[in-house]
Design goal:
By secondary structure, the protein is mainly α. About 80% of the residues lie in helices and about 0% in strands. It contains 13 helices and two strands, in the order E-E-H-H-H-H-H-H-H-H-H-H-H-H-H. The model is unreliable at about 1-10 (pLDDT under 50).
Amino acid sequence: GRLWGLEQVTVLTSAFFLETIHIAWEIVGDVNIILALLITFCCILSLSGVLLLVLYLGGSVVSGTVAGWFFIFSPIIFNFFLFGWINAIFAISLLPLGLWTFLKGSDNNNMIILFLSGLIFSLSAAQSQAIIWFLICFILSSLIYIIVFKRSIQIIKALIVVCTIFLFCNMHWIPILFLYPPVNVVSGDLVSS
């Protein structure tokens, strides 16, 4: 079934995001202003996240700013802008910040920063594919740390902490997805073939 014009799984995974939009709409009253503010916020979040990540990896402010602009105007994000997928733009704008906190927390063995990385990762569930994007980035950076820097125990511990925080923060929809799977996913041609 549908709730608020959206599939139930979408409503469950992005409940925090949708409720924030609803509260902003109640305060401001104009959807166009809310969308413009949200897009501006996501662009600033992306730019600052890429800048922090590049600075942490040893780059300069100029290279971080250029990389941030390339990230914002990459084809994938540009398509999200064209399609109007605000939740996808929000989720992908969290990716550089999530990766920065993951690397910084695992390097310093700082549980507070790793907790923050897990919270950022859990907010990315506003777009279901973003969960996979985050996991791919976390696993690839973990492999680099394991192969190049020989820090396997430290990085695996960080990955477990971040994924545990993600699972804990998303317990409101993960069990429901397995107990009551969406009909369009379970009864599709791909599943039954």
